[in-house]
Amino acid sequence: MKTLKTSMAAVLLLTTLFVSAYGTTPYIKVTSYDQKKFFLIIKNTDSSKVNVELKDVDNFRLYKETNIQNGEYLKGFDMQSLPDGEYTLEIENNQRIEMFVLSIINDKLSINRDSRLVIHKPSINQSGNKVDVALQKTHEEPMKLSILDNTNDIIFEDTLADNGNLTKRYDMSRLGPGSYTMRIDIAGKYFSQSIRIQ
User: Fold this and answer.
1) Which region holds residue 188: left if phi is over 0, alpha if psi is between -120 and 50, else beta?
2) How do strand 108-120 and strand 96-105 relate by DSSP bridges?
3) What is the pTM of this model?
4) The pLDDT value given to residue 55
5) How many CB atoms sit inside 10 A of residue 151's CB?
């Protein structure tokens, strides 16, 4: 019985650490109506701000709304003036980016639910000459980590192909003193952090 209580306490502690590291997940729903209109519903349960963007196939931003506070967000979007093609709706908070592909074919809007992609933002922490990278991977595409020098030349690359939670430590002690950038490419989104080696 004592072992069971200890195990339950350990599971509770690990769950608490995971939730504090990745925050709570906002509820997001995208629903089409009429020919070329859709509703976006966001219920944000934490204090992080949410950003919404709509982009065309060339990654040109058609709409952006920033700093949506916690609580409930409901907005209707009218895409009547847009031509046939694919569009991307991105909802971003401090911990993640959620993307949906919207298609207009023959003046009718459809939402491709299978194309939904969730990207968890990595955590990059430096302690002396050691850098820890922690991230959660929920898709099949490999992720690439690059280290760039102060002239933006890539001096190191690593492919992070595992699914699930990934934690990796990089020893930067062989690099000369100076400023470097650690960049992680996840499904075409870049996350960067400056690293200073003494």
Assistant:
1) left
2) antiparallel
3) 0.74
4) 95
5) 6
